[in-house]
Amino acid sequence: MTASPNPIEQSFELAAARCADLTPQVYQRLFEAHPEARAMFRSQGSELVMGSMLALAIEAVLDFAAERRGHFRLIACEAASHEAYGTSRELFIAFFAIIRDTLRDLLGNEWSGDIARAWDALLVEIDAFAVPA
What pTM, to 2 d.p., does this model score? Predict the structure, then answer.
């Protein structure tokens, strides 16, 4: 398998070789950084919801960082729906930085300058894109 030339895709490919499921790590980091987020998940079945939310977020990020075929639009839609549920825009946007930080820690020495710069730029773009209409 050839590595993707896209640094965002590379970060996920490298992470996938080390970790089958990012969900526990991402949500542990989220709840540590934003304890108020824990109350947003019911106790029964929340693992499925968290896994699904993360999978959709990753799919949207990968599309946003690449060809933008349509899945990236989920970011703006979910920003609006999360706001309707009482999730602050700041917390919604922070979730993407949490994903980045989890990948960075998982990759260790393989977290390159190119990957870091691509993620920094991507987070700025996501923040601008998810502005409510």
Answer: 0.87
Grouping H, G, I as helix, E, B as strand and the rest as coil, residue 34 is: coil
Q: What's the one-letter identity of residue 96?
A: F
Beta strands in 40-130 (DSSP E): none
How many C-beta atoms lie closer than 10 Å to residue 11's C-beta? 27
**Burial, 67: exposed, middle or buried (Cβ in 10 Å; 0-12, 13-18, 19+)?**
exposed
Q: What does the alpha-carbon distance between residue 29 and residue 7 come to, in Å, rounded to a whole number?
A: 22
- Encode pLDDT of 103-133 as tens digits: 999 999 999 999 999 999 999 999 888 876 5
What is the SS3 assignment for 33?
helix
- Domain positions in the chain are 20-129
